[in-house]
Amino acid sequence: MKGYWRFRRGGKIVLQANFTIKQNVLIVRLEGEIDHHEAKYLRKTWQEQMSHQNIQHVIVNVEKVSFMDSSGIGVLLGRYKEVAQRGGEMVICSITEPIQRIFDLSGLFKIIQLQEDEEDALSTLGVVAS
Asked: Which residues of the chain carry a pLDDT beneath 70?
């Protein structure tokens, strides 16, 4: 099950999530704002994606994320724990400077890898990009 989800608040799209699968890797491309309003919907949608597939690893592309608060960090940590329980890894890629500061402050990069782009992330996980 792959797909594209839009999360709306007040009729405005505030977060979009695109889920695709390459071998045993779920690639999550996020765009917009991730705060406590969207976090619960993102968490649920992401968990559904992981439960319906033979997923071992996750790549999260945050290139188009304009804002993230602690709720967004919580979603990432929760999915990281799920992936780790499956014996897999999570890789963040295509990060912008403002979002990287949030990740640095939270200490996420002590447990989650950072790569330049999706191709590098796939290579890190042993998957050939095409």
From this structure: 1-9, 129-130
Tokens of 77: 């940590």
CATH of the domain at 21: 3.30.750.24
CA distance 77 to 46: 12
Enter the pTM of the model.
0.91
Residue 11: what pLDDT? Answer: 74
Query: In this structure, how many other beta carbons lie within 10 angstroms of the beta carbon of residue 75?
Result: 23
User: What is the number of structural domains in the chain?
Assistant: 1
Q: What angle do CA 76, 80, 82 make, to 5 degrees?
A: 120
Domain of 98 in residue numbering reads as: 3-124
Strand order in the sheet with 90-93: 3-9, 12-22, 25-34, 57-68, 90-93, 113-115
